[in-house]
Amino acid sequence: SAVISQKPSRDICQRGTSLTIQCQVDSQVTMMFWYRQQPGQSLTLIATANQGSEATYESGFVIDKFPISRPNLTFSTLTVSNMSPEDSSIYLCSADLAGAGAFFGQGTRLTVV
Amino acid sequence: KNEVEQSPQNLTAQEGEFITINCSYSVGISALHWLQQHPGGGIVSLFMLSSGKKKHGRLIATINIQEKHSSLHITASHPRDSAVYICALRQGAQKLVFGQGTRLTINP
A-side interface with B, Cβ within 8 Å? Predict the structure, then answer.
């Protein structure tokens, strides 16, 4: 199994500001994933982050709004930039361990006011 | 039609009842995950299945690849089982495709 530590667990931010969410995995993983879960909805993939290369973004998500870093095989950050109330969501990071399945962080509950 | 459908969307039961949550899908998969999400937002991976049946404590997960159907069962349910249960599909090495979730409430 794997443990993924995600922080912050929650934050309330002013519109127009940016928030960086961090995820630390206790094992080396090739790919990490960032998801958004809007209220009452299922998870939507924002991007896939590979170490040493640019993140791959899903349709509807762009690097300028959600820049991602992946400096090594155990760590990644997602920044939510120039926030608006529509960005209020739970953000989750995830990693796959071969044969062991998918593991998730504790989630970051973001409220933009 | 969604690639993965869960039923029911909401389920309320009394403590001790046997719970079944269903997941049907329409695509070929390499694995199916059952996930549990508590109100704080964090997600715990309960099972990863590619065939047959798995059991962990009071939880049992089954999958029928031919019928493209999986079930999650909870025996002797308890209020602490109250959560959203999510079925997620993996196709090969692709990203996960998530069901809409089943909100389970167990009353004492």
Answer: 9, 33, 37, 41-43, 45, 48, 90, 92, 94, 100-109
Structure tokens at A50: 């590979």
CA end-to-end distance (rounded Å), chain B: 37
Contacts of B86 in chain A (CB under 8 A): 42-43
pLDDT for residue A1: 65
Across the interface, whether the CB atoms of A104 and B100 are under 8 A apart is answered no
The answer to whether the beta carbons of residues A19 and A13 sit under 8 Å apart is yes
- Read off the pLDDT of each residue in B101-105 and give the average, rounded to a whole number: 96
Whether B23 contacts B89, CB under 8 Å? no
For range A32-53, the mean pLDDT: 91
Judge: B41–A106 Cβ closer than 8 Å, yes or no: yes
**Extended beta strands in A2-112, E state:** 4-7, 10-13, 19-25, 31-37, 44-50, 56-57, 68-72, 75-80, 89-97, 101-104, 108-112
